[in-house]
Each structure stands twice: as C-alpha cells, then as structure tokens.
C-alpha cells in the first residue's frame, strides 16, 4: 500500500476498541498515517483511514510480523501508542498463578514486546515517541484488582527506565494514566471468584463500585484528544493523568498525603 501524503506514521495497539480505537481515529484525523492492531477483526467503527494489522501482543511472532509489515509499508514508525490491555479481578488468594501471569503477559510484557520490536528502527531513524497507556491503578493499588494494579505499576517503572536509555537516540516516552473511561474494558474483565471464596461479599460490593465508576466514566474521545496533543508537543513529559477531575485529584492527593490517610479514604470509598 502507498503511504499517503501523511508525514508521520503511528502504530496503535488495542485499536479495535475503547481508548485505542479513539486514539487511532484522532491521530488519523490529525494527519498521521495510522496502523492499528488488535486480535479481533477490524470493527465497523474503525475509520477507513486506519490500516488494521492483526496483532496479539502476547505473541512474539505476531508482534514481529505486525511491526515488520508496518515498516515494510510505511518505512518508519514515528509514534507508538501501546493501548492494548485487559483486566482481571479477584482476591489475591483466589487468583490462580496462571491467570496472574497472563495478566502481566498482556498488560506488561505486551508493551515490552512491541517496544523491543520497534526500538531498533526508531534508533536507526534517530527519533520516535512512545506513549504507553498505564492507569490510575498503577499509582494506587486497587482492592481486588491486585494483578491489574501490579501490571500497571510495572509499566510506571518500565517507562521511567526507558526514558533514560533512549533519550540519546532522540526517542521520548511517556506513560498516560487514565482514570475511568467508558470502554469495552468493564465487559471484557474476567472475574475470578470461587463459590466458596472467603472474600465473596467484599469482592462483590467493591467490584460494583468500580464498575459503576467505569460505566459512568469519561468519553474516550477526551483521552484521545489529549494524546494527540501530547504526540505533537515539543517534548513528552514522563507521565500525565487523564480522566475525571476527581480521579486526577485523587492521584495528586495520593502523592502528597501519608499512606495511612489515603488508605483510610479508600476504605471509606469502597466500604472496606
Ligand atoms: N477504560 C478505562 O477506564 C481504563 C482506565 C485505565 C486504563 N485503561 C487502559 O486502557 C487500555 C485500553 O483499554 P480500554 O479501556 O480501551 O478497553 P477495551 O475497550 O476493552 O480495549 C482493549 C483493547 O486491547 C486489546 N487487547 C486486549 N488483549 C490483547 C492482546 N492480547 N493483544 C492485542 N490486543 C489486545 C483489545 O483488542 P482485541 O480484543 O481485538 O485483541 C482492545 O482493542 C488498557 O491498557 C487499559 O488497561 C483503561
């Protein structure tokens, strides 16, 4: 396929739904040549100016194939947005280690695979931008979402380290920490709660609060617009938080107040 008049090329993972789809659409609208990945076939909502590339971020082969394809067609990738992700919930004690491992494989190693596959070409072209979608749950541990939180905390450290390593090649990286957005995430979440779980009652009430917040969350278009601004900014900051004001405020509060006060706030909020 011919590269059109666009100057910058973006590859977006998780572009078949939710935030990734909105980001792909906004980037295309802003003039980027956009390639969007996901496992399911391209959804009807994917704009025709986004080129779908089937990608499973848990597969080395699939990621390699997708990046090779995009590089062969477009010649370069200027912007990588890692939005692929999923969630599991359950008490720490109840979640089988295979499920916990799989959560890290999608949300953390899924980002690692794509970044590793793309860095050589970004280094060669001496420039590029990497935006990783983290979460507010990567700033503050969420009850009954320990493995999801752990995967997003891991991304915080990963992106900080990445920034030091790649700046000499004119490559910048940023982690975007969304609060609650209305996407397919809630419906796709896997709930692990055995019949006889000692945590069942608390799990159900906490998850109900979390799901209510998600389904009443912000429009993904808001995050997408912010990411386009970021992509075109002079420099990428290490991190930004996007989402409802109250949640952005909570992340700031988390930073400045003692742990035990924040914990007390969460205990009240989630009725723990
Ligand atoms: N929605 C929120 O409130 C919220 C808040 C904080 C952070 N986030 C983060 O935002 C990101 C996007 O989530 P979303 O809210 O937009 O949820 P979503 O609507 O469920 O979209 C998730 C996307 O990730 C893709 N994906 C999942 N597993 C994949 C895999 N193994 N390989 C490739 N793609 C995969 C899905 O595509 P396929 O199913 O086609 O593979 C889909 O495109 C995630 O990292 C999530 O943790 C969301």
Briefly summarize what is shown:
This protein is of the alpha/beta class and 272 residues long. It is built from 9 helices and 9 strands. NADP nicotinamide-adenine-dinucleotide phosphate binds at residues 13-14, 16-20, 38-40, 55-58, 83-86, 106, 110, 133, 135, 178, 180-181, 183-185, 188, 214, 217.
Structure notes:
- With 272 residues, this protein is of the alpha/beta class.
- The chain has one domain: Rossmann fold (3-Layer(aba) Sandwich).
- Helices cover 49% and strands 15% of the residues.
- The chain is built from nine helices and nine strands.
- It has helices at residues 18-29, 60-74, 97-124, 146-166, 185-188, 200-215, 220-232, 245-256, 259-269; strands at 9-13, 33-38, 50-54, 79-82, 88-89, 128-133, 171-178, 190-191, 239-242.
- The strands form two sheets. The protein has a seven-stranded parallel sheet, sandwiched between helices.
- Helix 4 (146-166) links the parallel strand 6 and strand 7.
- The chain is globular, with a radius of gyration of 19 Å.
- Residues 1-5 have low confidence and may be disordered.
- The structure holds NADP nicotinamide-adenine-dinucleotide phosphate (NAP).
- NADP nicotinamide-adenine-dinucleotide phosphate (NAP) binds at residues 13-14, 16-20, 38-40, 55-58, 83-86, 106, 110, 133, 135, 178, 180-181, 183-185, 188, 214, 217.
